[in-house]
Amino acid sequence: MRYSFLTLAREALSGHRGWRPLWRDAAPRGRYEVVIVGAGGHGLATAYYLARNHGITDVAVLEKGWLGGGNTARNTTIVRSNYLWDESAALYEHSLKLWEGLAEELDFNLMFSQRGVLNLAHNLHDVREGRRRVEANRRNGIDAEWLGPAEVKKLCPPIDVSPTARYPVLGATLQRRGGVARHDAVAWGYARAADARGVDIVENCEVTGFRIEAGRVRGVETTRGYIAANRVGLVAAGHSSVLAALAGFRLPIQSHPLQALVSEPLKPVLPCVVMSNAVHVYVSQSDKGELVIGAGIDAYNSYAQRGAFHVIESQMGALLELFPTFSRLKMMRSWGGIVDVCPDASPIIGKTPIENLFINCGWGTGGFKATPGSGWVFAHLLATGEPHPLAAPFALERFSTGVLVDEHGAAAVAH
Question: Which of 185, 192, 235, 306 has the most C-beta neighbours closer than 10 Å?
């Protein structure tokens, strides 16, 4: 739908009272077949694929705040699938393939831009790891290239590849199909599509407890009353361990703040996503011209959705190591998300010790890119009670069997 300038101005001045809502403001009913806790990208995608793939529409998605207000709105929107281990690569590649047709399927502009993702190598270890990952990706049918310093400079002219740099660029991996998407649009697109299929999306409805009888979940207690359900899926990112504790079991995850910030707008200057493990910064340019800049997780555990000055200082220093030309750039704002990190830096998708209570968490810093694939496999689990083949390696039981999917040392900056 297109609007004239006068219409846009009138709606801006009236508080958008004339906009047609993308989804219903649903009031919770007393019972559902499936309740999904968390209306971020993963939860909304799960609801959509439950309806689309399995015909299950008696679904409620509960969100304690506003739709997409958690990590979905607090990330750097990078999409890629070039992970090292077969299990991770398969799941993220399935997700990337869904990304490639998602805007058309949802009939919603997700601003998905496959501009390419560069992972820089600054030392011998980086080079060996990068080349190894390129070969592993190719064997798994995933596009991957190795570039020398001159090729890196040609692809992304602002990078300093001089041999006298403190962190000289010795090469880089490139996934051309990788890129970025608009985080809000992803949440809105899935919400509209799920709502159109009959899913209830209930905002401002916090889960405060679970009713469990004979080892089986019967429903959830919320700030808007009790809701019975045959099956419950937990997709609450950084607060997953809190919900698990309410249900009486523990998760092997830790929650950390993850900070990012954006610069003032520039003319188009950065043609791809650039990531560096040794310098530890990653940067892309938004469609508005802002540089979107991130780094690693804060060292301390916290549920605070805010940044810290020492992280900003470190990010700016790292940025200037790669791009000295940005030295006079002004930073406009920063934010923090809450990431839940597993010991092996891979997610948990599977059953819990409580019958018919399932969990999808532990994505750490890699959750946004997995949104479509995560929803696809978690919907399969909720619909059938059994894990999708792509999700089977990520069961909670792997931490007792020792069969881990260790991406910590394999994927460089795991964003």
Answer: 235
**Token pair in block for residue 301:** 């555990």
Comparing 53 with 20, the larger pLDDT belongs to 53
Asked if residue 335 lies in contact with residue 232, where contact means CB atoms within 8 angstroms, the answer is no
Sign of the dihedral through C-alpha 414, 272, 317, 311: negative
Q: Coil, helix or strand for 201?
A: strand
Task: Identify the helix (H) or strand (E) that includes residue 187.
Answer: helix 183-196
Angstrom distance (rounded) from CA 287 to CA 266: 10
Q: d(Cα 217, Cα 355) in Å, to the nearest integer? A: 6
Residue 407: predicted pLDDT = 85
Q: Which residues pair with 221 in a beta bridge?
A: 209, 226
Helix H segments across 107-182?
124-139, 149-155
Q: Are strands 117-121 and 273-276 parallel, antiparallel or unpaired?
A: parallel
Domains of the chain: 114-179+255-341 (3.30.9.10)
Tell me the one-letter amino acid at 188: W
Tens digits of residue pLDDT in 76-104:
999 999 999 999 999 999 999 999 999 99
The rounded distance, in Å, linking the Cα atoms of 246 and 282 is 36
Give me the DSSP letters along 263-317: E---SS---SEEEETTTTEEEEE-TTSPEEEEEEE-SS--------HHHHHHHHH
DSSP notation for 242-273: HHHHHHT---S-EEEEEEEEEE---SS---SE
